[in-house]
Design goal:
Layout: H1 3-18, H2 73-77, H3 83-91, H4 104-128, H5 134-151, H6 155-159, H7 163-190, H8 263-267
C-alpha cells in the first residue's frame, strides 16, 4: 500500500470517528425542524418547524432521561452525525432561532439538507478508511472535498442544492467500494466455491431467525430486517447501507467490520455487551446491563 493511500485511510478513519452529535452546541434542531408522526416511536404528532413540547428554553429535553418510558423511543434512536451543531454554530454563526426568530424558517429548512450532506460525508470517509485501490481512493477523496465545500455554503446556496444529483456519483462509488471489500472477503475467508448467496439487497426478512448464521460479506442494502433475530451471527463485511434494523436482535453478533452502519441504525436495535461494533459506533445506552 502506498504512503498516499495510508494517509487517506487514516484521514477517513479519523473523520468518520469524529462525526458525533454534540447537542450542547445545537439549538434543538431535531426537536423543531423535523416532522414527527405519532407511532410506537413517538407519543405525539408534530409538524416540521414547531418545537416539541418537551423542549426547554435552554434547548434541552425535560424528559431526556425518561424518553423511552414516556413513548419517545424514536428520540433515543435519532442521530444527526453532527449536522445540528454545524448548522447552529457555523452556518448560522451561533444565532439561535428563539432570540432571532426571523432566521427560524431558513434554519429549519437547512437542517435536513445538512443532515443528508453529513450522511454522505460519513459514508465517504468510512469508505476511504478501507484498503482499496489508489484510483478509488482518489475518487472518494474528490467527493469528500465536494461535500465539505457544500457544508460550508451560505444559507441561500444550501437551499438551492439538488441532493438527488449529488447522491448519484457517491452511490456509485459506495457500491464499488462495497463490492471490492466483500469480494475480497469472500475469496480470503469463504473461498471461490463457497456456494452461499451473498446478495440479499432489499430482501424482506422481517422477523427472520438468523441466529448464529455466517452472513459474512452479505449485501443487505435496503433490506428489511425489522425484529430479525441475528443473535451471535457473524456479520463481518456486511453492507448495511439503508437497511431497516429496527428491533433487530444483534446480541453477541460480530459487526466489527460491517460496512456503512450508522449510529441511528444501531440505536434502533437490541444488543448487549458482547455485540462487536465498528470502530466509529458507540454502544447505545439502552443496551447497558444487558448480558
Amino acid at each position: 500500500m502506498s504512503e498516499g493511500i495510508k494517509i487517506r485511510n487514516s484521514i477517513g478513519h479519523d473523520l468518520r470517528k469524529s462525526m458525533q452529535a454534540d447537542c450542547q452546541n445545537c439549538f434543538g434542531l431535531c426537536c423543531t425542524a423535523l416532522n414527527i408522526v405519532a407511532s410506537s416511536d413517538f407519543a405525539i404528532q408534530k409538524q416540521a418547524g414547531l418545537p416539541c413540547p418537551n423542549l426547554q428554553s435552554n434547548f434541552t429535553c425535560q424528559i431526556h432521561s425518561e424518553l423511552r418510558d414516556k413513548g419517545f423511543k424514536g428520540c433515543t434512536v435519532y442521530d444527526c452525525l453532527g449536522a445540528g451543531q454545524w448548522v447552529s454554530q457555523s452556518t448560522f454563526h451561533g444565532q439561535d432561532w428563539r432570540r432571532t426568530p426571523e432566521i427560524a424558517d431558513n434554519m429549519f429548512r437547512v437542517f435536513p439538507i445538512m443532515e443528508q450532506v453529513y450522511e454522505m460525508i460519513a459514508y465517504i470517509t468510512e469508505a476511504m478508511s478501507y484498503e482499496i485501490s489508489q484510483l478509488l481512493t482518489d475518487k472518494l477523496n474528490e467527493q469528500l472535498q465536494t461535500l465539505q465545500h457544500l457544508s460550508k455554503l451560505d444559507v441561500e446556496a444550501l437551499l438551492s442544492i439538488n441532493i438527488s444529483l449529488i447522491r448519484i456519483p457517491i452511490n456509485d462509488l459506495l457500491l464499488e467500494t462495497s463490492e471490492h471489500i466483500r469480494n475480497k472477503l469472500v475469496i480470503t475467508t469463504l473461498g471461490k466455491k463457497h456456494g452461499r448467496k451473498t446478495s440479499h439487497r432489499g430482501v424482506n426478512w422481517i422477523g427472520k431467525n438468523l441466529e448464529g448464521k455466517d452472513l459474512r460479506a452479505t449485501d443487505f442494502r435496503g433490506a428489511y430486517l425489522i425484529a430479525a433475530n441475528m443473535q451471535n451471527a457473524d456479520l463481518r463485511g456486511v453492507d448495511f447501507i439503508g437497511a431497516d434494523l429496527r428491533d433487530a436482535n444483534i446480541s453477541g453478533a460480530n459487526l466489527s467490520t460491517a460496512m456503512f452502519l450508522t449510529q441511528m441504525q444501531i440505536n434502533s436495535t437490541v444488543g448487549n455487551c458482547e455485540t462487536k461494533l465498528p470502530y466509529y459506533l458507540r454502544i447505545p445506552t439502552h443496551w447497558h446491563n444487558k448480558k
